[in-house]
Amino acid sequence: MLHDDRLARTTDGRGRAVRLPLAALRRRDAGGWFAPEFAGERVPTLAEAVALLAELELGANIELKARRGDAADTGRVVAGALDRLWPPHLPAPLLSSFLPAALAAARQRAPQFARGMLFRRVPRDWRERAETLGCASIHADHRRLPPTIVAEIRESGYCLLAYTVNAPARARVLFNWGVTSVISDVPHIILAALEGGSLRTAGAGPDAN
Known about the structure:
There is one protein chain. The chain is of the alpha/beta class and 209 residues long. The protein has eight helices and seven strands, in the order ααβαβαβαβαβαβαβ. Helix 3 (71-85) runs parallel beside helix 4. Mean pLDDT is 93; it is low at 204-209.
């Protein structure tokens, strides 16, 4: 599980992750860049992440990322792994992606898992795309999300997740518009700043594929 296709930003390694075997990836320090107390953390596998979620009793929004040409295979493999690994006592995961082929393959392999379509800017045909893939949610860049689109999506019965929201004031605006959840690098700050901590956030810091 790694946010970027390259290692440099979130580990002490260099180059493209896809060019390294898992054992080499696991030798990289994936925590020291964030804070000294996290030095020595390794790039986690999906199985390890699911095990931790089970321990913490948390659900997850799992983003499917893939190199060019591998979207369908990635969606199929990840959905299959989650079908085997996901603890029955947890809420079912949400599988999200910018890649329609990944979502379509995930739907075919594990239709019981909800899907979310990611957009940078919500297109005019968002509803048709979501219906084709059987999506339950729309995810969009909060900087390109006008209140009219928020209302249209919510009135159509879809959940709407806005990313990446790190300012409490902006989170309040989005919730007042009707956004269902915000994805944040600092969910503890967002929650602490919002009255009573009753408004929903989805932790991201950083997003993982």
